[in-house]
Structure prediction request, 744 residues.
Amino acid sequence: MTTTVRTNGKDTTSALDVDYSAAEILAIKGCQYVRFALDKPVLRLYKFYYSVYWYWIVWFADIALLLLPCIERPAYFESVPKWVALIIEIIAISVLLASFIISMHLQNQRKLIREAVYPYIFIIVFLLTIADMIVYYVLIWNNDNTRYIRWSRPLRVLFPFALQSGQHIRRVIRNILRTLPNIANVMVLFLLSVLTFTLLGVGMLRSRNLPHPNRKDQYFTNYIDTAWDLYVLTTTANNPDIMMPAFNVSILYVIFFMAYLLVNLYLFMNLLLAVIFSNYKQHLMEEQQVIHKRQLDTLTIIFQRLSSNNSTNHVSYNTYEQLMRAIKPDITETIIDAYWKTLDVPNKEDGLDLKKFNELLLNLNFDLRQRNDDQTILQKYCPKFYNSKPSRVIIDFVNTSLFRTIINLLIIANAVCLAANYNELEWVFLAVFILEALLKMYAYGVRDYFHHRWNIFDFIIVLVSTTYSLVSTSVQVKFEGNVLDAILVFRVLRLVKLVGNVQRFKVIFGTFSKVIPTLMTYLRVMFMTYYVFSMIGMELFQRKIIFIDKNSTSTYPCNNSALVDSDFAASNYCRNNFNDYFSSLIVLFELTVVNQWHVLASGFVLVTTKVARIFFLAFHLCAVIVVLNIFTAFVIDSFLNQYTLSKSKEFPWVEQENIITDRLTRQGFRVIRRYDDMKRSEGERKKKFNLLDSLRAFVKPSISRRMTTILESSRDDEHTLLLRWSGHVDIDPDALLHLSDEAS
Prediction:
């Protein structure tokens, strides 16, 4: 992607080549902040570091490190030799170390050491892990019965956090840490309220000597036990059990518990969510401002380097042309000229100033193609047939609401037949759905058909169902029950097609799909919390509770005498233990759901001491109160923003799209906007479906079809451009332009 000049028979990379590559990275990343040492010729290493291959290598190393407890003691797979875990851990840490070294080499080390914290975190965690590994394997290599606590395992989650590629995770954790002071204020008031009600409850009920509903001790006599019960009541897990002994004595005691729930559950918990949501939005805005500032700084550096050979401090047209060829290797002269004209620069000799160069990177989010490059195979090789009257009727019919309505009704009818176990019409439905896929491929082209996720989803379902029907009919193979269940699931998934066909459902699902990338970062932070507590839980509670089958001769439930006559054993919770990695994660998930979590905690308290409550209290505060509430705040904020945007007719890119269209039209180009299956701009209003108009259009060609035929038959393809918002990243179209105005 870079050009080279020859000097003394050897290939060397010029300074401008580095500049082109740096600007190329900046443009491809959609004006995101790019952090690497611009004063070093390390672009080839940078491309390797951010290549797909290295990304997957680091990803697998990260996953291997997080799944390593499956074969470490206490292992889920006990038969795996211990040297396998050692080799995997060494390889994974080596890959992460290599990624860290490359990352440090690509950046300004002096500035990084002065400003960043994560390099120190990585080095400290790496040294502690190596020391723990050496001691552990030396002790257990010849004696498997040696008891040693792997205290460094909870620190493994910090390895990807400390890498440069973990900047999104660091951003979320930084947001959480900034929100903690405000959360602490509400939590202090909440805990004071719990303690106040504890004193009040013990004072009212101690003299009654009532039996506890879930334990063998007395009811509301011990301050610590009462505070624990009331804290659990905040999660409603022990409601109304904890209230019933007092309720059985007098109905007036219900007022105490109702007041407690009103104050602590409905007031403080909702106030906590409101504080988290408010601070989350504020910190997110501050984070975005920092990112935009870094974008401008990086953009300014690139601009200065590209314009350094120009006395007018502008990027020349020749430099622009070489840059465009580096960014888009297959770009044509016409498209290069078209992108230049989207900037509305009067003369090529004037070049691009900082504002226009910034606008160029923004315009690269719009995909410009010549119309003949977007034609289907039939359009290219059989234009007369494809543009004929019968063909246009079929294409227009596929684009009507009538076609989608028919398919939706058939999906519902297919679901009714599946529910009634009436399979005689299965081949009819399969034939219709195959015909639907073929018609869409014919109308949109194979490439555009598979460009949409809903079509890929639909195609997979139809392919699996057809394959199953053909094999079972022709070969007469009898499938096992699990295979039949899987096929049935695929057939039922046709109902999900309604989400893709009904516009109201599609808006909601599309909104959700747009927040999934960031959503995965928050899920990763949640999993990091799970991982840390699972490692601690296995060291504290392993082999304390053992699952035994019905044929076992053990006289004690869960193989522990402390659980006799306990709610934990009566609920058959013995499988919920910390004896291996997977079981630990399941227990933590059950604790997150909070239903019966006090019963789960009580089992581990009985087999150890009441101090074990600190572990479960800490997990609830970290995972449920803090992380889960911040996760909820993110989902609410993102969904509201995306949903409001999707329902609005003023999309943020429509204004820039109109500017590009107007400038290209004035330069003699014909611009066709293309969006989704309907080939309509998302900013345009959709016409309401009319049955008579649809039938009339199906029978008689409309004026628009005649104009389409004329356009398709026109040979002036060079000046007919297709404009599409590609949306590489979610950016504010006015933000960078506004920043460049300030810089100017």
